[in-house]
Amino acid sequence: MHFEERSELGMDRARSLSPRRRSRPARHQEDLPRPKRGHTRRRLHIATILLLIPLVYLGLWVARWAWQERPADTCTSRLGPLELWEGTHPMNVARRKLYDDLGAQLDHSGLMLGKEQTQGLDARSLFRERDGRVEPALQPLQVPVRAVVLHVSDAAAAHTLSATVERHLSPLAQDAGLWLQDPSKYHATLFHASAHEFPVEASSAEVATEVKAVERSAVHLCPIEVVLERVIAMPTGNVLACWQILGGSDPTAVRRALRGALPRAPPAEHQTVQDAAILHTTLARLLRLPTAAAAGRVLRSGAPDGAALLRSAIARISVELCGLRATLPTLWYVEEEDLLALALNGRVRKHPVQMMCQRPPPLMANVDTVQKVAANQFPFS
Domain spans of the chain? Predict the structure, then answer.
């Protein structure tokens, strides 16, 4: 009897110590729901994705800044095959040096908004704020400004310029802090027959004579094939597209022809555009200092951080736009009744003139020409 009781107790003890017995949960634990294997895997996937998101973002951020740090290399790869700096384009080399000097001004001076901007005027004279938006403060002129400009008549190129500039500069500008030029009026100023600071009065008959003279000159000028070398920002906030010449008449030749066609024009020292080689288009005007979005503060004038914000945006614009090409066949003889009417959407009369690229006739083609020359008459009037 004692032996049977002892053996039953031993078997009970063995069963209680067996692995299967030990692993069996208590009755209150069996009532709890067990996590399904699929749910566990889903949680692991979600955790992995959440960890990867900041890593991907960091990689994109690094790649973005690495790409932005090589604008010169990018533009060189696009412009290099065009052989702009070869011996056949000597003026392109002069323009390149000029653009280098202009681009360096922002590095040397920083941003100096509110100081002299255009033709002796600052932003406070040219613009005003109304209902949170900027609008031009048009100033009527007693003597209209008369000028010959090269119209950026390629609508696709003008749209590309405008859209790129707006996309990169608008985030920097405060309310009413940016004026974007009208892309339909993009132009490069070539010559002034009457300037704001050196007015030359003209009657309607004299204006008609000047238009005819420009038309006669344009017959022998060729449409200008341009390529954008870079975009630069000036310390005054003006954003400029700087062009190089692929073919057609060089701006120096155009200005020389216009000087001959418009003898009453202001002398060279009173021309608004002083350098005969330059060909640039104003795309926008920054009116207020850029804001540092991360810090939510406005940077003081001349602060290197403010210039750096603008310089970074301009570098990105140049990377996107350099190499942009267009053929521009149209000159505008304009009469601006308001100061900077083309730039500020003021009152302006435009006289389109086409460059025809016709060769001039020989100086003495026949007996009649010889007789006219002998009589001191101009043979091609």
Answer: 83-360
To the question of pTM greater than 0.70 for the whole model, the response is: yes
Residue position matching structure tokens 């086409």: 354
Comparing CA positions, the residue from 131, 145, 251 lying closest to residue 197 is: 145
User: Token pair of 238, please?
Assistant: 């003006």
pLDDT in tens, 144-191: 999 999 999 999 999 999 999 999 999 888 767 899 999 999 999 999
Write out the DSSP string of 116-154.
Answer: --BTTB-HHHHEEEETTEEEE---EEEEEEEEEEEE---
Q: Are 314 and 231 in contact (CB under 8 A)?
A: yes
Please check whether residue 180 is in contact with residue 168, taking contact to mean a CB–CB distance below 8 angstroms.
no
Structure tokens belonging to residue 291: 């804001």
Does domain 83-360 bear CATH number 3.90.1140.10?
yes
Distance from C-alpha of 23 to C-alpha of 274, rounded to nearest angstrom: 95
Amino acid letter, residue 106: L
Angle, helices 71-79 vs 304-321, to 10°: value is 30
